[in-house]
Amino acid sequence: MLSPRSAVRTLPAYHPPLAGRNGLRLDFNENTVGTSARVLARLRNLNAEDLARYPEREPVEAKVAEFLRIDSSELLLTNGVDEAIHLLCDTYLQTAGEAMIVVPTYSMYRIYMMAAGAEVISVETSDDFGFPTDKVLDAITPRTRLIAIANPNNPTGSLAPAPELLRVARAAPESAILIDEAYFEFCGQSLLGQFHEIPNLFVARTFSKAYGMAGLRVGVLAGHSDQMRAVRRVCSPYNVNAVALACLPEALADECFIKTYVSEVLDSRTRLQGFLHANGIPYWPSQANFVLVRVGSSRELAASFVEYIRSRGILVRDRSNDPGCEGCVRITVGPREHTDRLLVALQQTIEQVAIAQGVTRA
Description:
Blueprint: H1 6-9, E1 24-25, H2 37-44, H3 48-52, H4 58-68, E2 75-78, H5 80-92, E3 98-103, H6 107-115, E4 119-124, H7 133-139, E5 144-150, H8 162-171, E6 176-180, E7 201-206, E8 219-223, H9 225-233, H10 242-253, H11 255-278, E9 283-284, E10 290-294, H12 299-310, E11 314-315, E12 317-318, E13 328-332, H13 336-357
Parallel strand pairs: 1-11, 3-4, 3-5, 5-6, 6-7
Antiparallel strand pairs: 2-8, 7-8, 9-10, 10-13, 12-13
């Protein structure tokens, strides 16, 4: 009887709570207003022939490379960052190898690593969710083949200093080091281009967050040209669909849209963190477009909070199952008018949860 590989049989299931997402979407770190008008106009102008042809990735890669100020041989467009992670696992991992993640972090790192047959080594962050450089360095062994680091991290929003990440990359020259910069636009720190001096370093970017193109599934993997040549060997020539490729140049050209949206997100992040501080609610300062908030001491309280605020038309993400995040929810921030709605709903939810728990708020 046909049976999947043992590595596949033991994979943890990942079930994103996508069903019934009615309300203000502050649960998946998406752009909460949608994509730019230029992208929508390009979509409307697509014709039958555009969809009938196989997509040509290379011309768009040249435009993205120019935008990122690197050579086109140093990047690959991917079906979201998820495919970039998958490709690195296929290219560099092997059954006898180890892969490393710093937890809590993006769940799919572990799943793709395990699917490739690697042993996944989890290194816990410090108590304040700071990047544990020394612990990561201590965990590197001759079997280490891939280290994936989200920066800023998801779900914590914490940012590892660039010199610390470079220390890790230099300490493991035979390992692929992925720095996942999905939230780059909201922090401004990047290691893009550092792979000229550190050839085992890779940087991933996405157009799912700030650019509002999550539904089109398009990301970037960048690295030293010699390494990217190897990654391309395991990549489908038609991995990014024609619609995404047609829209991406328009997204890059609409700088005003991105600048305006990011500016409002940063203002909203400050407002949300100020509200939490004023109300004595624990949170972790974020460098991304979301804030991790501790709303209670248990998974049950976090789940109650999520349901209370959902009843007010706001969706947030329960992160209680992540290491060190019991009782926590993650709240995406968007433009000012969405934050106005969020803060009103938060105040009402805090009061309702307090009443349900029999707590008297000062």
